[in-house]
Each structure stands twice: as C-alpha cells, then as structure tokens.
Amino acid sequence: xxxxxxxxxxxxxxxxxxxxxxxxxxxxxxxxxxxxxxxxxxxxxxxxxxxxxxxxxxxxxxxxxxxxxxxxxxx
Length: 75
Fold this sequence. Notes:
The protein is an alpha+beta fold. It has one domain (6-59). It has two helices and two strands. A two-stranded antiparallel ribbon has the order 1-2. A hairpin with a 4-residue loop joins strand 1 and strand 2. It starts with 5 loop residues before the first strand and ends in a 16-residue tail after the last helix. The mean pLDDT is 83.
C-alpha cells in the first residue's frame, strides 16, 4: 500500500507527491478535515467538563487502598 498527498479543488485532484505507477491501480480517497474544522484541545476539554460524563469519578470511593497490597514496601 502506498499513501501520497494530494489536493482536490472540487473539480480536479492534484498530486503533491510524485508517484511511479506502471499499471492502473485501485485507490481509496480520504478527505481530511481542515484544521479550523477540528475541535481544539481546550474546546474538547470544556465539552467533557460540561457533559458531566465524568462526574462519577468525584463521587466514587477509592477502589484500592494500601490494605489491598500483597507486599508493602517501606520508604
């Protein structure tokens, strides 16, 4: 499998990288999102906070304690 970069302007596909192809080949064309269309880390973090999906982490008791250790090491 070979991946190459290209630009599609709505009419034509322009290859950015040179490629040697000796016979017709099947291809898969994937349109990548523009960076301005993607969520930033800050937006994603804010969305996770607002959703409340992780609120259970604040309410749940700790799953393990030192009493669960099979071997206890001293500092």
